[in-house]
Amino acid sequence: MRGIFGGLTGALLREQWRAQRRYTLTAGVLVTLAVALATFAAASWATREAADAVVWEAFGYDREHSAEFSLWTDGQGFLDGEPWDGGWHDTTPEALASAVEEAEALGVDPLTMLSTDVRIRGFDSVVFVESPVSGIPQTLLYQGASPASGQIALPATLAEELEVDIGDALTLTGLARDGVPAAEPVSVEVSGLTRVDPDPYWREPMLFAAPEDMPTLARLSIQAMVSEDGTRTAPYYAQVRWDGADVPALSDAEWGTDETSGFVWDVPTSVNLAVGGAILLAVTAVAAALAAGRAQGEERTRWVATARALGATREDLLRAAALEGVVRGLAAGAAGLAIGWAAATVPVAGTHLASDPLYGPSVAVLPWPLVPVLLSLAVVIALVISLAPARWATRVEPSAALKPTGPLDLRTERAGRKASPAALAVTCLAALAVASADALTLLPESRLWELTVNTAWLVAAGAAIALAIVALRAAVTPMARLLEATRRPSLLLAADSLRHRTGGTFPAATALLLSAPLTVFAAQTAITVPSDGDAAVATWDRVVSELLPWWLGGAVLIAAGGLVVGLAEWMGRGRALREAATTGALGLDRHGRQIAAIARVAAPMTLGLLAGAALGLSASALLEAMEALAPGPGVPSWETLTVESGRSLVAALGIVAAGAVGVGVAALFAARGVDARSPQEAARLAR
């Protein structure tokens, strides 16, 4: 280690640190932010998986086979005069018991779970009732015992809300339906309390009952119908799950060995935001470094030219930059791991401290194999950030050390090829055509076709975003003209910067990349919220409550994006200060210089935010159009389309409002970057 840092490379490394201390620290913060988000996403996901494992094992969702049955309390039910078919395999309690006995005879250990739904008097929501034939697993039982006939066990938090305890009585009721005889309420005794999920997936609480009580409780179900002789009847369901050999008696109702269960867990919004945010912000962190790389390269040219004059080769300089990146990546990666894990632990530990009857881990879980992966991610990002300015700076000739300044002449560099809007549009349309063929069920399903369609969706999304970024780049010039039309000196300066520099593309693209997917998910969430009939106020209240996590999470995510943009501005502070010194000498005061810096960042970022919301709304509308055109029963009415459009617009407006936080964060950094009281101070800070 001493040999690495003690020779020429070490001397160059120390000089880089002295000359570029601000850039090194800022780049380290960018890497830390990206790794912290990635760690938070990984830890949140792993913690969620660890909590799920308890329930998956308790309910048998992790078993190889699953057979699904429906049973009737009082004979086949009829709906509008027609026998009702719920899509599950109809059976009787006797036939089900015989099939389970056959499975046991084959040496397997089947787990049978019965389920229905009821209402609790004094509690508004419908609740599920589960009945494990072998009793409640001890991992889920908090206090008391598994219910016997006439008893139920309920979540500890629900018992607290209802102010009941073990030994108290509850009254279960059914839902009245037109044309269906009413069901008599059922009184039950509380036998035990069950553990609850600290981050619940079920919208309704879950009760547990004895198997022999399930027909009685199922008569209270919201799915109650009329039997052939005019009495009330209702379906209830049985799932048999097992590992090992196939069971012939269960084969007709089996879902197949490739699908363990029809039950699919939802992923919390926080995890979705963390995963998406980690990916997008890692990309924008690298883009920020590349955006600031040329400016940093120009700032390094003086001492680089001196080093070249003293005998350092281009390879020596790049080697020093690479070593700087590795050291920065390891340090920032370790800090990001600690911050991300701590951020994921806080809500988990907080819920366990607040309430005891919770299952799952009490701190965040971070699988050890992910640690080297995340550290490698940090090193890769840091290497890109370090080598970008070094690549520009090492182009300087040693003779530049003799000049008053060391500008980097890049006029001979070949210009990169610009993306063709027409090519991007054609690519996007072609990919959408492939994806639409599957959405409209025009082609047969297969594994290869499914992979092709998923790839087509990704290509279409990427091409659409790239096309939007190209459009944003073209829109920066007209935006500069609008600023010039104000005739205010500070905005004229901002317009000049936007017109002659590509820096406006980065904040605009960052806002677009973050707001577009957020708008899609928020709009789809708003559309899928079920309507509450004529209760329009209640419906909008529920829509807003469903959108609130996306709006709050979006504010945090776009604020992190604004931080990345602000840090990119901070890395290029030297150029901004030199401009401030020049304009200050020409008469622009400190306040005007700060307004110019804010406008240079806030205007394109706001443009990107609006463009991202528009792109997200368009993508959401496209998804709904494909669903409406796909073969199936019914066509959405104009009223339905109007309601969905209104909800989508509200979702998009919320994302735009949340994004204002990110614009403010970026603007704050931009203003601080040129915060010099005089032109002389700005010139001194620029050095």
Structural summary, described in words:
The chain is of the alpha+beta class and 687 residues long. It folds into three domains: 1-61 and 273-412, no CATH class; 62-253, no CATH class; 469-687, no CATH class. 60% of the residues lie in helices and 10% in strands. The chain has 18 helices and 14 strands. The protein has helices spanning 2-6, 8-19, 21-59, 93-105, 156-162, 214-218, 269-309, 314-354, 370-393, 421-439, 447-485, 489-500, 505-528, 536-571, 573-585, 590-629, 638-673, 679-686, and strands at residues 65-72, 77-79, 82-83, 89-90, 111-120, 126-132, 141-144, 151-155, 169-173, 186-194, 206-209, 225-227, 232-233, 235-242. The strands form two sheets. A six-stranded mixed barrel has the order 5-6-11-8-10-9. Strand 2 and strand 3 form a beta hairpin. The longest helix has 41 residues, at 269-309. The model is unreliable at 1-6, 257-266, 404-417 and 532-536 (pLDDT under 50).
Topology summary:
Layout: H1 2-6, H2 8-19, H3 21-59, E1 65-72, E2 77-79, E3 82-83, E4 89-90, H4 93-105, E5 111-120, E6 126-132, E7 141-144, E8 151-155, H5 156-162, E9 169-173, E10 186-194, E11 206-209, H6 214-218, E12 225-227, E13 232-233, E14 235-242, H7 269-309, H8 314-354, H9 370-393, H10 421-439, H11 447-485, H12 489-500, H13 505-528, H14 536-571, H15 573-585, H16 590-629, H17 638-673, H18 679-686
Parallel strand pairs: 1-4, 6-11, 8-10
Antiparallel strand pairs: 1-14, 2-3, 2-12, 5-6, 5-9, 5-14, 7-10, 8-11, 9-10, 12-13
Produce a short descriptive summary.
The chain is an alpha+beta fold.
